[in-house]
Write a sequence for this structure.
């Protein structure tokens, strides 16, 4: 079974703090993704990575950065947390091959981040 | 902008009925299509994927794809209260990313 794990289920931080969210997958997937999910807005892609040390901006990268030093690990960094970054953060991974279901994204359990 | 549209619902069906969830997409070059189920407070989990026109069945679930009409649907037969969740449609437009709809909330009443 594919397993994607995230470092915390719940996190409470103060405005201005630097926040690290970590994601680890055990399926040797090339692609990894960070989303945030807010009521009524659906899943929004923040960043994704298709290889070690590679990163691409998604739809809402402002206020975030990422790091991928190892294939299995993808970190999301909030440089200076703000209250509007309170959200559910979801990590996902997929194989590079497209089509026929091999591009399925598998999600971690999510991190509910609250910024006070 | 490539879009995936879903009716937000809620779609209410009685237990034992067929639930029909629909999704349209804008990019004709889309290659594969996914249905995810998401319970409240949980992460999305894959139900099934489809990449060829026609129907694909897996247990009580049937995905239907019509590329000419840019339409994909999910049928849930013999709906159970445990099927109550939000169902996300996702489309791979060919750039290693999935575009997600905002989801349809399904309520199955006993």
């Amino acid at each position: 079974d594919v397993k994607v794990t995230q470092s915390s289920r719940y996190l409470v931080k103060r405005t201005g703090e630097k926040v690290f969210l970590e994601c680890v997958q055990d399926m040797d997937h090339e692609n990894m993704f960070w989303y945030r999910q807010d009521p009524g807005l659906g899943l929004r892609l923040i960043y994704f990575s298709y290889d070690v040390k590679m990163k691409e901006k998604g739809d809402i990268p402002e206020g975030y950065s990422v790091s991928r030093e190892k294939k299995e690990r993808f970190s999301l960094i909030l440089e200076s947390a703000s209250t509007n970054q309170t959200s559910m953060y979801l990590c996902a991974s997929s194989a590079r091959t497209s089509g026929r279901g091999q591009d399925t994204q598998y999600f971690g359990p999510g991190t509910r981040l609250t910024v006070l | 902008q490539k879009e995936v549209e879903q009716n937000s619902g809620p779609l209410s069906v009685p237990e034992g009925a067929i639930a029909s969830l629909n999704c349209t997409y804008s990019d004709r070059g889309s290659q594969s299509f996914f249905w995810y189920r998401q319970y409240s407070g949980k992460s999305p989990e894959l139900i099934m994927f489809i990449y060829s026109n026609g129907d694909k069945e897996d247990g009580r679930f049937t995905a239907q794809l019509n590329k000419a009409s840019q339409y994909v649907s999910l049928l849930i037969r013999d709906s159970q209260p445990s099927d109550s969740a939000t169902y996300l449609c996702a489309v791979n437009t060919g750039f290693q990313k999935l575009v997600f709809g905002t989801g349809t909330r399904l309520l199955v009443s006993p």
